[in-house]
Amino acid sequence: MVSFPIYSADSHIIEPPDLWTERIDSEFRDRAPQVVHLDDTDLWVLDGEIRMAVVGIQNQAGLRFESPELISKSGRYAEIPELTPDRYIQDLDRDGVQGAVLYSSNAHQAYRTAEQGLLSALARAYNNWIIEFCRTYPVQLKAIAMLNVDDPLEALQEMERTAKLGASGFMIPILPQPGCRYDQPQYQVLWSAAEEIGLPLSWHIGSNRAVFGREPVIDLLKHTTKDIHFQTAITTLILSGVFACYPKLQVVAVEFGTSWVLQLAESMDQAYKRYWNRAAFQFPDGELPSDYLRRNIYMTFQEDIPGIKFRHLIGVDNMMWGNDYPHAESTFPHSQEFLAEHFQGVPETEAAKIAGGNAQKLYKFPR
User: Fold this and answer.
1) 181-185, 230-234, 360-364: lowest mean pLDDT where?
2) Residue 77 pLDDT grade (very low, low, confident, very high; cuts 50, 70, 90)
3) Which of 358, 226, 228 lies closest to 303, judged by CA?
4) Rounded CA gap, 316 and 120, in Å?
5) Which residue, among 153, 45, 33, 139, has the nearest Cα to 85 in the 3D structure?
6) Model pLDDT for residues 288-331, shown as the tens digit of each residue
7) Residue 25, in any domain of the structure
8) For the domain that residue 280 is a member of, what is the CATH number?
9) Number of domains in the chain
10) Sheet harboring 99-103: ordered strands across?
11) Cis peptide before 333, with omega less than 30 degrees from 0?
12) Who has the most CB within 10 Å: 39, 85, 150, 337?
């Protein structure tokens, strides 16, 4: 067990099967995602054919410790207990976690499957629901709203709307729609607004607009080995000077681990020093890309002993732990034991930051 408070910067909810059929804007009601019952599983489908996600492995927290051979993509809503706010708090207590930042399990899959109008409607309905869910326990649960950035001005409006309702951050796709890049001027309204509102933007694994369309099963495995697109997004923001122009902008790379920072920081610095006179942006005062990587980018991990070992090179102040509850790979209900193992020999002040203090500060959990 650890002797300091821990907060999960990456946890999830399970969208109820009637979420969009009940809440989506009326004009999109006939296109709302629905749960289809197959022989051995329930499956989310969109527009009658495009798969969003399966139900099974999203609801199997703890099974990896009890009966790992039973972990399966198959599963039915009728077979799992409803994940209510009360049950969520009970399981956080059981896991020794003081608070959690909640991401979607299915909604972000729509980034790669829904066209602009439908995606915006899906996001609005999801955002209303997740904010209501977290409002039951606002001290312990923090909602991350979902933004469609196909139209940055529309995304700005949704950002402002959900911030007023109580969102604690905003999820955007790792890469925008094909043909667009985050260094283009239309996205400046998002960087400016996020900086002014003071809430972080997030890239969560699997939320990629650029890979639009149906993906084969192997892509699910590729996601679990960490999507390289997020490094493209990070380098685009840094090397184009977005963080130099918006120094208070904060972005979180969620569920990618932390060890990747070492190679990326070194590669960006070498490239910039070698070609600084031809760089897309000239950094002021002799600063390097790695300075912005450690100043403006946060990253979450679940199990990352190498990252802890090299925490001083990665950045103690921007590493955050997450339990990934209630997914099958979650550390629930043994998160305390996992963290105790990770932080053997680590000064308590540093361990406390990584395991909870950084998330507490970023997402404004009460002390």
Assistant:
1) 230-234
2) confident
3) 226
4) 36
5) 139
6) 999 999 999 999 999 999 999 999 999 999 999 999 999 989 99
7) no
8) 3.20.20.140
9) 1
10) 7-12, 99-103, 141-146, 169-171, 201-204, 251-254, 297-301, 319-321
11) yes
12) 150
Q: Which residues contact 15 (CB under 8 A, 6 or more apart)?
A: 104, 105, 106, 107, 126, 129
45 domain residue, yes or no = no
CA dist 200 and 248 (Å) reads 10
- In this structure, the strands spanning 201-204 and 169-171 are parallel
15 phi and psi angles, rounded to 5 deg = -65, 130
> Which residue range is the domain that position 117 belongs to?
7-18+82-362
pLDDT of 362 = 98
Are the C-beta atoms of residues 313 and 262 closer than 8 Å to each other? yes
| Statement: residue 224 has pLDDT above 50 | no
How many other CB atoms are there within 10 angstroms of residue 72's CB atom?
A: 14
344 in a domain, yes or no? yes
Residue 176 inside a domain? The answer is yes
Structure tokens at 231: 């490094």
What is the SS3 assignment for the chain?
A: CCCCCCEEEEEECCCCCCHHHHHCCHHHHHHCCEEEECCCCEEEEECCCEEEEECHHHHCCCHHHHCHHHCCCCCCHHHCCCCCHHHHHHHHHHHCCCEEEEECCCHHHHHHCCCHHHHHHHHHHHHHHHHHHHHCCCCCEEEEEECCCCCHHHHHHHHHHHHHHCCCEEECCCCCCCCCCCCCHHHHHHHHHHHHHCCCEEEECCCCCCCCCCCCHHHHHHHHCCCCHHHHHHHHHHHCCHHHHCCCCCEEEECCCCCHHHHHHHHHHHHHHHHHHHCCCCCHHHCCHHHHHHHHEEEEECCCHHHHHCHHHHCHHHEEECCCCCCCCCCCCCHHHHHHHHCCCCCHHHHHHHHHHHHHHHCCCCC
Adjacent-strand bridge partners of 172: none
